[in-house]
Amino acid sequence: MWQRIRRIDGSIVLILLLLMGISLFSIYSVTHGRDGLDGMHLKMLQYYAAGFVAFILLSLFDYRLLVRYGLYIYLAGIGILLLVSFIGKVKNGAQGWIGIGELSIQPAELFKLILIIFLSTMLVRKNKTTLQFWRDVVPLGLITLLPFALVIIQNDLGNALSYIVILVGLLWIGQIKLSHALIGIMIAGGAILAFILSYIHYHEQTVHFIEKTLGRDHFVRRFDPWLVPEQASSEASYHTKNAKTAIGSGGLQGEGYLQGNSVQANRVPYLYSESIFVQIGEEFGFLGAAVLLMLFFLLIHRLIIIAMECRDRAGPFLIVGVVAMLLYQILENIGAMIGLMPLTGITLPFISYGGTSLLINMSCMGIAMSVRLYGQEAEDDLPLPGAKSESLWSRF
Questions:
Q1: How far apart are CA 143 and CA 332, in angstroms?
Q2: Could you identify which of 89, 221, 305, 380 might form a hypothetical disulfide with 97, taking C-beta atoms 3.0 to 4.6 angstroms apart as the criterion?
């Protein structure tokens, strides 16, 4: 065991410690002295302590066992999502929380890791053969569509979209045919473009459809400031408008720690969670934001190196799923704060306050480290090396 511990990637541990420091200082800046929020940085420190425990335990746990029992993990996750639909608590417009005593757990966050594991379980059975559309791609899409629909019903657009990004990343490394990938890109791109143009040019009709037919008026408050800011209500545009103003006022070097005008005046909602990047942009400026992005880049770079060095088939799938998840969260969170993406309530990995999100991200890092520790051993038997390619479901 000690030999494995000594092989843990020190650069990843260092990056995680630096991200922890940024998170604690940022959360303190936006919560100190405020009723109901003061002391949240200490709670976040406790979450990080639990996160590092999860990181170590999962690093020493053979990730191939997760892949072997991926189906059962997936079914358990679906069961939890169904449970949330009936007894879930509502926070920030999303019914996606389960209360356990004083703790609140967000199963949609947990399912991102579950989906990565199960899609990896399915893809590793292909034994390095090209994915067939009806036999492989469609079943993987249906596997992803089910939790996507459940989370959309819970009004959690941000986490639901992350499932699609994870699927796309794993299909790419899973050797989807280039023709299928191009067709998929064209269809998805066309659908997104059609939605954007319809929303802009037929705003009233589109909003009526979303609010009355779909019953998702919450989505309208997200899309209006992004696509038609001139038509958005002052309430809907308040968040994005003030976030962009705060980040822009930070300039190159920022206004100084604890000196951000908008941040300290609490002019941006949810500064401790989804809007934490605003504090970094205003108080540390472009340079502070660049340092944070560089840390994310280095972390993802190390994960990709681990995937490339892995000899087992399952390891790269797991890591690419994690990388896709992190990239989506980083780009969506920061993009929403500067007006390039719609607000979806997604958190900034390792920085935003939140126990469930942090524990899932730290667990992902632990699984990636497990790939580093165990991925150089003899390849797992899912299926046996040299086995003929088969349907995704045949071994279940």
A1: 23
A2: 89
Cα–Cα distance, 290 to 294 (Å, whole number): 6
CA distance 305 to 319: 10
Structure tokens at 135: 């036999």
DSSP 352: S
**pLDDT tens-digit series, residues 59-90:** 999 999 999 999 999 999 999 988 887 776 77
> Measured between alpha carbons, how far is 373 from 23 in angstroms, rounded to an integer?
28
Tell me which residue has tokens 């143009």. 197
Instruction: Look at the alpha carbons of 295, 301, 304, 308 in this order and tell me if their dihedral is positive or negative.
Output: negative
* Maximal CA-CA distance, the chain: 64
Helix (H, G, I), strand (E, B) or coil at 167: helix
Calculate Rg over the CA atoms of the chain: 21
Residue type, 126: K
Query: What is the torsion angle, in degrees rounded to the nearest 10, for the CA atoms of residue 270, residue 271, residue 276 and residue 282?
Result: 140
Nearest to 144 by CA among 236, 82, 188, 78: 78
Residues facing residue 99 across a β-bridge: 104
Q: Which residues are CB-neighbours of 269 under 8 A, at least 6 positions away?
A: 238, 239, 275
Using an 8 Å Cβ cutoff, are 63 and 315 in contact?
Answer: yes
Kindly report the number of other CB atoms within 10 A of residue 85's CB atom: 13
Per residue in 114-133, pLDDT (tens digit) is 999 999 999 988 766 788 88
Determine phi and psi for 91, rounding to 5 degrees: -135, 130
